[in-house]
Amino acid sequence: MTAFNDPLIIAGRAYQSRLLTGTGKYKDMEETRLATEAAGAEIITVAVRRVNLGQNPNEPSLLDVLPPSKYTLLPNTAGCYTVDDAVRTCRLARELLDGHDLVKLEVLGDPKTLYPDVTATLQAAEILVKDGFKVMVYTSDDPIIAKRLEEIGCVAVMPLAAPIGSGLGVQNKYNILTIVENAKVPIIVDAGVGTASDAAIAMELGCDGVLMNTAIAEAKDPVMMAAAMKHAIIAGRLAYKAGRMPRRRFASASSPTEGLFF
Does the active-site annotation cover 104? Predict the structure, then answer.
């Protein structure tokens, strides 16, 4: 088993990369392009309310450097704090992108922590699924809420590892592990990853992928960090599939002591 014949399946489509990346916070579009390529990402998120996807014809468009012919665009509802705003933003994205129906839903509840409003998220998810959208949904690390979002019909559930942009890494491994164990759709850690080891840990827990933006864009060398994240995701997935050795309290010799010649 290798990372390259172990595709991530989302809404019936196979992806070789399990690293999803955002497109915000870079110094310019060229850096965005280079970091995205270094990450090997195939799915990229775009904030419809903040990024020009053609709604401003006189300004540079993100689609000029990251074309839909090469990447799967994942319009998101970043900055939305109500059900109505989130639903309206998804519908706008569908119009701008010629019927594109794969979206990332996030309904925020607090501007300081950017924690999700799970009640509003459930409501918006139900509306969007009924409206024909394929919804990948940002949520808390609550296993009960994650399961309800799956039951509503979301194609992927995306629990946070830690608050958005915090770089704190996976703060509640047991909740993430429970979500993974109960899921029948892809579980993708979204938010809170700070460095490569954080990404590897998320994958070793059995997550199907990781979405990140700040960890790459705010690194001293974003392109180099993007490459590090690519390898961390692959390593973490392989380690999960391989199955780690059991933890032991005491030593266990690497070389057996029985049957020695002298």
Answer: yes
Encoding tokens for residue 33? 């392009």
**Confidence check: pLDDT of 172 > 90:** yes
What is the 8-class DSSP label of residue 53?
A: S
Using the predicted structure, report yes or no on whether residue 254 has a pLDDT greater than 90.
no
pLDDT tops 90 at residue 48: no
Q: CB of 194 within 8 A of CB of 172?
A: no
CA distance 30 to 25: 12
Catalytic residue among 104, 130, 147, 184: 104
What does the alpha-carbon distance between residue 216 and residue 258 come to, in Å, rounded to a whole number? 50
pTM for the predicted model, two decimal places: 0.91
Rg (CA), the chain: 19
CA distance 188 to 208: 6
The answer to whether 124 and 83 have CB atoms below 8 angstroms apart is: yes
Pairing of strands 13-15, 8-10: antiparallel
Mean pLDDT, the chain, rounded, equals 92
pLDDT in the model for residue 255? 67
Q: To 10 degrees, what angle do helices 83-96 and 118-130 make?
A: 40
- Percent of the chain whose predicted confidence (pLDDT) is above 70: 94
Quick: pLDDT tens for 108-148.
Answer: 999 999 999 999 999 999 999 999 999 999 999 999 999 99
DSSP 62: G
Going edge to edge, which strands form the sheet with 209-212? 156-159, 134-139, 102-105, 72-76, 43-47, 19-21, 209-212, 188-190
Are the beta carbons of 139 and 149 closer than 8 angstroms?
Answer: yes
SS3 20: strand
The owner of tokens 């609550």 is 142
